[in-house]
Design a protein that fits this description.
The structure is a single chain. The protein has helices at residues 44-59, 63-69, 75-78, 101-114, 122-141, 217-228, 232-238, 275-289, 294-305; strands at residues 16-17, 29-30, 70-71, 94-95, 151-155, 163-170, 173-180, 183-186, 190-194, 199-200, 212-213, 268-269, 312-316, 327-331, 335-343, 351-359, 384-387, 396-413, 419-433, 440-448, 451-460. The protein is α+β, with helices and mostly antiparallel strands and 461 residues long. The protein has two domains: 47-366, no CATH class; 384-460, Sandwich (Immunoglobulin-like). Strands 3, 4, 5, 6, 7, 8, 9, 12, 13, 14, 15 and 16 form a twelve-stranded mixed sheet that branches. Strands 17, 18, 19, 20 and 21 form a five-stranded antiparallel sheet that branches. Strand 20 (440-448) and strand 21 form a beta hairpin. The chain is globular.
Amino acid sequence: MKKSTYLTGLLLAASVCRVGSDQLLAAPTARPAAAKATKVTQATTAVADVVTAANAFIATLSTTQQSTLQQSFTATNVAKWSNLPCGSSCRIGLQLSSLTTAQQTAALAVVQAATGTTANEGYNEIQQIRAADDYLAANGGGSGYSSGTYFIAFLGTPSTTGTWMLQFGGHHLATNITFGNGVVTGATPKFEGVEPLSFTTANATIFPAGTTVAPLSSEASAMLAMLNGLTTTQKTAAKLTQTFNDVLLGPNTTEGGSTTFPATKVGIAGSTLTTAQQDLVVAAMTPWVQDADDVTAAALLNYYKTQLATTYISYAGTGNFTTNGDYVRIDGPNVWIEFVCQTGVVFRSNIHYHSIWRDRARDYGGNFYTTVLGTRDVTAASVFGVYPTPITAGNSLQVQLLAPAASASYTLHNLLGQTLTSGTFQGSSVAVPTTGLAPGIYLLSVETPTQQTVTSRVQVY
């Protein structure tokens, strides 16, 4: 995708699955954590390209294949991803190897349309990770590894008006891109890993034979540069005492549990860094964020830059990314990136990489979370959309119901649960005033006769 805009509503944290070492295991699913912030989204025109590609792919499939591809957009289904080589036991959708060549081409065209074009990132990186699985299979890994053992699923119906999600993943890869009302509402969670770190292709299955493949080389070098840019004193302050054998917020993280976004940030704050050091932090984020479509990536990076003062960096291990347990984290108000070294599974004498990019407000488009008001898990996306968010105080939030209602009500709260404004309306839409609101995060709740209260977070500038 190439175009983007800053729009849309529905926030907060979501679901995922947790990682272990890369063994042939099934990974259960669950959901992650709190959120704060805003949405950076991609324009309807570009989403239309993804929808066109999605519909073209659907048209190549049998009725049975279509029913496997298209699943419900639920908290359970969005969490059905893993980094493990566990095939369909931990994923949903169609396996590439079950498709004809034409169908595979159409499936990958959807993924390519929805992801970035930067060299070594985005779609190119996805293909490199798939090629790595073929290399593992050819070098003692066995039949559990294959570029064909990657799965594609549509959660919801691809459109420029509703909420849906593209899921594509397999061993060392989980791509989760959420769309709502014609915009991209989330490009995370995004898991990437690779074993071995670098190799040369022996066949032309994905790349020409003799191609050097090193999909996470940009990520590793950028994180190393960030840590090497610290002074000795800063590096001491940034070092964590605990050890890590994997990322914290991979598959199986559960909202409210011990493996959700930590409540307390650790390491050193961006506010203590020089401008040059802050630039290295941004550069370290960039390879992950550029996996999103190009303009969404640029918008996200610009937004993350505004949060640098309260973004923390920390690490464990040697800081060189050469040893099992070497670990680094970037933890901002929104952005969360982890990168860790593990002992190889197939190449036991070498390390391999795991990484995760999350966003507290945008995981799964922010559609699944538990509100701070003590209500149960909600799916605001199935009831209403709200835009623009972020919004400048004084302008009106536009609430759009997915189905017209004879009577409906809205309430805008602050994070303490205090009601700031409320009202009733009929039909499909209403304008919610924000006059006099201070910059910050607010909760917008909507109730209709057929749906109990659902809540979305919005940000006011």
